[in-house]
UniProtKB/TrEMBL annotation:
Species per Swiss-Prot/TrEMBL record: Kurthia zopfii
Assembly notes: Acetyl-CoA carboxylase is a heterohexamer composed of biotin carboxyl carrier protein (AccB), biotin carboxylase (AccC) and two subunits each of ACCase subunit alpha (AccA) and ACCase subunit beta (AccD).
Origin: domain of life: Bacteria
Taxonomic path: Bacteria, Bacillati, Bacillota, Bacilli, Bacillales
Record protein name field: Acetyl-coenzyme A carboxylase carboxyl transferase subunit alpha
The entry's keywords: ATP-binding, Cytoplasm, Fatty acid biosynthesis, Fatty acid metabolism, Ligase, Lipid biosynthesis, Lipid metabolism, Nucleotide-binding, Transferase
Metal-binding keyword on record: no
Encoding gene per record: accA
């Protein structure tokens, strides 16, 4: 059953009315073409009005949509000859964070990304896209391998956060993320990170220390979920909508604050409406980023990345 977001209900009702009139036209041979044309015009106008005035909480809901394209969806749509690699060579393989090698336009790249599921069984297997320490260590292993063979690194960010369970803490969750931050800062190959859904807390930052960070138009990037922030600030998680607005966690907000480099346009209604069409926009952003970063030397890549993160949060 398709998930319907609250702000989409007027559109659903109007589409149902159009379908009903089309059905009557076919079955009863009554001409409702004028009424249908009027409703379709109204639908297009309403759709444009709703999707061009989305609030922060609306974008949070789109980012969390159960059918939103995942890292693997984009990988298979954009790249050629993807070979998934497994394990951190220390503890095990974490299916919440996937990685491997592939090519785009003939250039070899390394890809890492959070991977959630679209159904209950897959979500459980993927731990709802919340990696354990071995996930981040696997990502780092692949990124260091990419540096050795001079391959750019492409990261897909889509997690509520790193898994906060006891076992993850026992295996060094904080150290694993911190190690990634340090090592990614010094990588001598181009690094591009794309937030495709939720970018939550250190779990997202663990693969986001990049030369260029892009966000899909309806994705989010934040230090904590709106519900978590509302619980801390006002002792009331039901104020998540207010918190989402105050936190400025949407792509347009973060582009304005220069936390990210660019916003990737989404098709009307969100990426889940047509993942193949959305992949075209994501691929264009990756190609543009690689074309720019491939011109820089190893030292310039490190310096550019350092300067980028040093200026975040500065003020006059």
């Amino acid at each position: 059953m398709e998930q319907i977001l609250p702000f989409e209900k007027p559109l659903i009702e109007l589409r149902a009315k159009i379908d009903e009139l089309n059905s009557v036209t076919t079955e009863a041979n009554i001409d409702f073409s004028e009424e249908i044309a009027h409703l379709e015009t109204k639908l297009a106008k309403l759709q444009d009005e709703i999707y061009s005035n989305l609030e922060a909480w609306d974008r949070v809901q789109i980012a969390r949509h159960q059918q939103r394209p995942t890292s693997l969806d984009y990988i298979h749509a954009i790249f050629d000859e993807f070979i998934e690699l497994h394990g951190d060579r220390n503890y095990g393989d974490d299916e919440a964070l996937i990685g491997g090698i592939a090519s785009i336009d003939g250039q070899a790249v390394t890809i890492v990304g959070h991977q959630r599921g679209k159904a209950t069984k897959e979500n459980i297997r993927r731990n709802f896209g919340m990696p354990h320490p071995e996930g981040y260590r696997k990502a780092l292993r692949l990124m260091k391998q990419a540096e050795k063979f001079n391959r750019p690194v492409i990261c897909f960010v889509d997690t509520k956060g790193a898994y906060p369970g006891k076992a993850a803490e026992e295996r060094g969750q904080s150290e694993a993320i911190a190690r990634n931050l340090v090592e990614m800062a010094g990588l001598t190959v181009p690094v591009i990170s794309i937030v495709i859904g939720e970018g939550g807390s250190g779990g997202a930052l663990g693969i986001s220390v990049a030369n260029q960070i892009y966000m899909l138009e309806n994705s989010t990037f934040s230090v904590i979920s709106p519900e978590g922030a509302a619980s801390i600030l006002w002792k009331d998680a039901s104020l998540a909508k207010t918190a989402a607005e105050a936190m400025r966690i949407t792509a347009p907000n973060l582009k304005e604050s220069e936390v990210i480099d660019d916003v990737i346009q989404e098709i009307p209604g969100g990426a889940h409406k047509n993942q193949d069409e959305q992949a075209v926009y994501v691929a264009a952003a990756i190609r543009k980023g690689l074309a720019e970063l491939n011109q820089l030397s190893k030292d310039e890549l490190v310096e550019q990345r350092y300067a980028k993160f040093r200026k975040i949060g500065s003020f006059a």
